[in-house]
Protein 1
Amino acid sequence: MYVCSCFGITEEQVREHAAAGACTPRQIASESKAGTDCGSCVRRIQGILGRGACPRRAALERGEPALTAPTSTAPTAAPRRGEADPAGFPAEPAPAQPLRTAA
């Protein structure tokens, strides 16, 4: 059954993301985009996630790393104006320089 009709995300996909460590609707959204358009599915996603154990939280409580592999290729620091973004986002244009005229 579809949970998010905007992006065609099913209950099974939400459960798979939850089993992989997504514990909140926001984490589900970052993995699948569910809940990021009209938002009508967020409560349904919350219901599927329930109040059960969160694998990431449980790992942290055991002193283990919560994430085993990086989930994002985004740089740790934002690129400077005019530089290319390695994540594929368009570069922010460099600020216009004022024209200097001879006096």
Protein 2
Amino acid sequence: MQILPVLVLMVLFFVMMFGIGFILNMLMKTTWFPSYLFVIVLIPVVIFSMWDQASMSLGAHLGTYRLVDYLTGIAGLVGAVMSGWTIKKLRLGGYRMF
């Protein structure tokens, strides 16, 4: 596993989830909706869409993911949480647009 592609992938997922979360926060006027959406919808969809339930258990399936998969997922979650935190700070700073 080379470190440079992993870092690029982590930054890409962080920026992508931060941007999507920021736009959703601006449009829907909710602070933590993108974080909840990531945890409740995206993670189960990714896990269950690739899981062959007839041949392996959930624990064995989660063991097939590599460190790169977990790191990119964590980077995406951090991006979603940071977008909520940024919107919250902007609202506390008096910006009504957010």
